[in-house]
Structure formats: C-alpha cells, structure tokens
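Tutorial, part two.
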Amino acid sequence: MGLLSKTVFSSLVATTSLAAYLAAKNPVLSPLAASDPIWTSKLFKRYNPSANPATQDVCIKRLPLDRIRPELLKNPGDLVLEYCRGVWSGYGFEAQRRYLEWKYRGPETSAHLWTREQLSRSAYDKGTCIADHFEVVEKTATSITVRCGDSPRHRGPRGGDGLFVIGAVVDDARAEVELTLKSCLFASQGKGVGGQGTDAALDGGAASVVCAHLVRVWVAAAVEVTMRRHMGTCMTGFFACFGTYCMKRSNLYLTAQPCLAALVTGPAPPS
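Running the prediction step on this input gives:
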C-alpha cells in the first residue's frame, strides 16, 4: 500500500462502513461527463493551466421538493448556501475539521472558518477560507466552487490542486431538487505525464474506494440539513469521536493523508 499503512487503512475502512450503508440509499457517484461545464470553465483553465490529467467524479442526490425545507426555496441561492454549509459543518467533515484545527489554526489563519458554528453560518462569499485548506473561488445562485489541495496562502501552482463544485438546482418539471458535489483534482505544478499526478496520491484502488465512500458521507451529511427533518446529532457524535482518535494518533493520521488528499488536503502536511 505504500505510504498508506494497513493499520491506518483498516481504521479508515471502519469509518466508512457507515458510508457504505448510506451509499445504498443515498448519493450516486459517477464520472464527470466530457461535456461538463467545468472542463471549459475559466476556473479550471486558471488553476490547471497545463491541462494536466484530473481525477474527477460527481456525487448526486435527488430529493422531492416536498422534503426540502420550504424557506430554502424562496430566494435564489438560499438552497445551495445551506447545502454548502452542511458540507462543511456536518458530520462528514467533522474528523478532518478537528484535525486541521489542531494542526493549522493560529494567528496567520485566524480569519479562516474553523468552528462548526462558523461553518454553519458563513455566507461562503468569494475569498472565504476554510481550515487553511480550502478557499471559495466562485459563488453563484446554484453553485459554490472551492479550491482545495493546499493552503489558500499558497496562491500559485501546487503539487496537489483541485476544485470542488457544490451545486443545488431545482427541477420544477420533476418536482425535485438535485444536489451535487463535483470533484476535479489535479497537479497544477508542472506538466503531468501519462495520467500520473493526483491519481498516484490515492495509492491504489483500495484507497480510491475509501475516498469514494467519504465523498458520500460528505454529501449525505449536507443533504440532511436541507431537509425538513434530519438526524445529524448521532452522526456528529460518531465522527467527533473518530476525529479525537485521529488527533491522538496524529502520526498514523499523517500516514493516511495520501488517501484523504483527494478529498481534503492534497499532499500530507509537513510534520
């Protein structure tokens, strides 16, 4: 498994057992279509100027309109904003949030969003920084795009880079809402060869499966906050406990970073 030790991998698999259960009835994970707007977007061209190979997918969840909180359907942008808040303040991100706070919070990052309260209340306007590893680079009425892979303080090309597009669209014809989380991950530094780069950071197919399950947890947690009733309390407790465990086992957690890189942090942080 290379850098991803069997011990850590086993721990990660244990945490994704819930995700596997959620996957059976929740978000669908699919490759991004060749016609997806992200490939021709200004953001993709700006942050991947060499058109390096990308690891990409989209997680999709469709819900009937009558299951969505009515107040989120009144004004353009309200639904995607609440969904975005759910991605970052929900149980799916809790373990990583705690680790990043422990590792990176300080005077230089005091303006970033760190606490669950901050993450659940932010307007996520362009320029908002999250836990020293994410930055909002675009906000529209139906999507919020976040750059990932390294600290927002590192403005230039990166060995690990990427974009998350958090989207919410109302489909009136089907009386449904479509909630999506697109991930497009690449190395913006240098020129990729033969599809290498971000894919290699996943350290094999097994780690990719873990990452896929984690994406589903992110989306499942975020979906809940948009619904009339949700079950966040018990799940938050579960992931909070795991987050504490990770901090206490920080050396093991750093070993696991290549797997989590595609979702959260890019290259393993320096010790």
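Residues 6-260 form one domain. In part three we will examine how such features are distributed along the chain.
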